[in-house]
Amino acid sequence: MDVKTIIRRFAEYHADKTAMVYGDERLTFRQVNERGVRLANGLRDLGVKRNDRIGTVLGNCPQYIEAMFAKHKINAVDVILSPRISTADLEYQINDSEINTLIAGNEYIRQLPDRSKISGVKNFIAVSGAPPGWFAYENILAGASTAEPKGEVENQELGHIVYTSGTTGQPKGIMWRRDSYLLVARNILLDLLPDLNQRDIFLGLQPIYHAVSSFVLPCWIRGVTQVLAPSFDAEIIFPLIEKENVTIIKTIPTLINRYIAHPNIGKYSFDRIRSIIYGASPIATDKLKQAIHIFGQVFVQNYGQSEAPLTLCCLRKEEHVIEGKPEEVALLSSVGRPYAMVKLRIVDERGKEVADGDLGEIIVQSDHAMMGYLNRPEETRSKLIDGWIYTGDIGKIKNGYVYLMDRKGEMIISGGLNVYPNEVEQVVNGHPAVLEACAFGVPDEKWQEAVKVAVVLKPGMTATENEIIEFCKESLAATRSPSRWTSWIRCRRMRKAKYFGVN
Questions:
Q1: How many domains does the chain have?
Q2: What integer best gives the mean pLDDT of the chain?
Q3: Could you count the other beta carbons within 10 Å of the beta carbon of residue 465?
């Protein structure tokens, strides 16, 4: 089976049902597929061939999904570009991936590199307001055939390129097989959302080019209506959830923290929500408990990374216990157990499996794992060893559940002690005035490294540095007293220092 066939088949199965909601616009499964077909044929009319690389610089809009489908229909390579990166990064990624055709939203055209710097791009397509030298998206669709493109699919071929965040050096292009989305969809329907059905309404509170794209196919297969949100502000999202009767949400801990602290959250009803999938970074257990009190026991945690897209471990709804035996409540700080189709081990620096409960690097093996890094054979060999992806995440397994500590390179050595930022953040986030916290190491003459923590307070709340430090002393051992090695930064806005994959 292949993605191309799946798209066509379930467009027929759910033909007249609403597939997509975007503001006042509503498209059926038949309409979305037909627009994808027209775009695919229009791209062929422009000279795009099998295995040509097509990049998209788009926000959350129907055209993103139409373009995603069109690439599969003509066996092109989907290059996933973030509209939030700099012009310099876009230039690098467009050239590195050898993009032939670029599809961009009008609002992002200004940040694209000068054409002379991306000379490999032959076709520039604007979704709206096409400037001189650009093809208009709707004109391409209007003049194209509605016949499904022909052509055999090779699932083992390169189908997608997605770039890492580039926190160290240039971003790396991660290569996924053509059937990667289908394999991820299988994992989601088998483990994460086994009861997903055509009565559900799905709302992705992340960019589609990020983790939400992995939910497009499961929703398509099950006949689920997908609601697209261009903005994630609470004042927009809360009414949207009510209006569209949303039942399934995919989001991130940062937004959960903001939503549960919002002063107007009590004015809205969330009774229809039956699943909230979260991931991409850790969440403080105290914040998670607050969220469960507000939304109910509907949370499902997902752990993954770009090298093994999205689906590595999940913590199911029934495992989000906030009152019960200590060993049951402790699961809130885990990322759950491996997916059915994923092998996972914890190994030491020599690659030897460690004992249950001991810390080590998480390594995984699955059929949906990456093919390697684009144009980087040496880095591929260091990441993909004997069929195992070395994730770079430090964790442990206890009673079959996986617990993350931090990224391998982010451990802080302070006064001879190994300090994991996540360990510190969990404590700080427990303070009632703290919205988010981010711990990181800085050079220190006395301690080798000192731990600094950036703190964002909840709206309308106040707290002094000493108050937070005293609060931490109640949970941290004396050898890790915050007064020894912690300095505090109060700031209005913050980005988490670490990042666990595509979720």
A1: 3
A2: 88
A3: 15
